[in-house]
Amino acid sequence: MVVNIERLFSKRANRLRSSEIRELLKVTQIPGMVSFAGGLPNPLAFPVDVIHECIEKIFKKGDIREALQYGTTEGLTQLRGVLAERMKNKKHIDCEMHNIIITSGAQQALSFAALCFLDPGDTYLTSVPAYLGAIQAFHALEANCESIPMNEEGIDLDSLRRNLERLRRTGVYPKFLYTVPTFQNPSGETMSIGHRKELLNIASQYDFVIVEDDPYSELVFEGKEIPAIKSLDKKGRVIYISTFSKILAPGFRLGWVIASKEILDKFILAKQAMDLCTNVFSQYVAYEYINGGYLDKQVENIKELYKRKRDIMLDSIKKYFPPGIKWTIPKGGMFIWITLPKNIDTRLMFQKALAKKVAYVLGEAFYPEGGNYNSMRLNFSYSDDDSIREGIKRLAEVIKQELSTKFQQDAFPPEGV
Q1: pLDDT at 7 (0 to 100)
Q2: Tens of pLDDT along 87-110?
Q3: Per residue in 115-172, pLDDT tens?
Q4: Over 73-111, what HEC string results?
């Protein structure tokens, strides 16, 4: 007798959806495929020799047995200490070691925000397009999303206020607003300092928390770094999340959270129920990485590498893309956002792109309510230089073909239409 396992799953389990990006990564393993789909750091950015040195130090100092043991839920004391110093000096965030917990990647921190703030039917806010991993984490807790559009300065604050007033009239009070304010994933755009300050004022006025996801701000190619929203926070209203995935290596699965004691106490309880503690050996390596003075040097190497790749992609887009296409020009990070004419559907075009052996992420994946079918995200950090040029050339051919087909369909509609 076959067990009907489906009837035993929880309603929450049946709400879970696969990541479009993770599914795309399977397709992009095809030989000869140029993939701009995954948000992957470049392997050349991994400080392999430095990691080797850090591991040797752990052995030489006699820390290896502790590094192989269970650790505290909050994270390695030494790592939290050097992180607190770095956050104060580099990001001007007023924090101490006890304001930080170490997580199994930034994704786990997003799951904690969902678990600790959202009951089924609760509402959260996010600017759109939004990071897909965050949408997944919040959707899993059966929450309702209110999407706020972006403008040239970041989140559209006028739209945010209108939505908050509309929600308030119906008795809905959002729990938090999620944002990637610096070199946003997927758009690559950055929120202005004025918008950051005003967003804090709005959060105080309407009494919600800001979840600031900051994986990319160290990867600045031009201009000055804009202060983190958390550095402007005087009331403990901001939950700051960051990661070692872009400045060390994603395989270590290390992130961290800076927040008030009240919030971290709940996060710690959630973590104890989830995985007890973060990979201790990885934490020892990350501590040696920062404490040995390697991090700042490596960040400069990564910035140089990624800036070159961004410039190659932008130059190739200018050279090969047909007129009528718009794209962002990020000053850092890993992504470029492409907007095609409204009569082009990147979902329908995707299979044609795969046939040309080039892949992107559909823009609609970054909209909780769907829509925005004429957009796509391109990652410039992962591919080698020649592959970027060739991939953009292939993609341009697909776009030109699609534009030509649409023009013919519009000019010569089928009989009876």
Answers
A1: 86
A2: 999 999 999 999 999 999 999 999
A3: 999 999 999 999 999 999 999 999 999 999 999 999 989 999 999 999 999 999 999 9
A4: CCCCHHHHHHHHHHHHHHCCCCCCHHHEEEECHHHHHHH
359 pairs with which residues across the strands?
Answer: 35
Whether the pLDDT of residue 2 is over 80: the answer is: no
Structure tokens at 158: 């006028």
Q: Could you tell me if 129 and 367 are in contact, meaning their C-beta atoms sit under 8 angstroms apart?
A: yes
- C-alpha to C-alpha distance for 56 and 60, rounded to whole angstroms: 6
Nearby residues of 327 by Cβ (< 8 Å), 6 or more positions away: 314, 317, 321, 336, 337, 338, 339
Q: Which domains does the chain have, with CATH numbers?
A: 5-46+303-410 (3.90.1150.10), 62-295 (3.40.640.10)
The CA-atom distances, in angstroms, between 171 and each of 164, 319, 368 are 10, 52, 22
Size of the chain in residues: 417
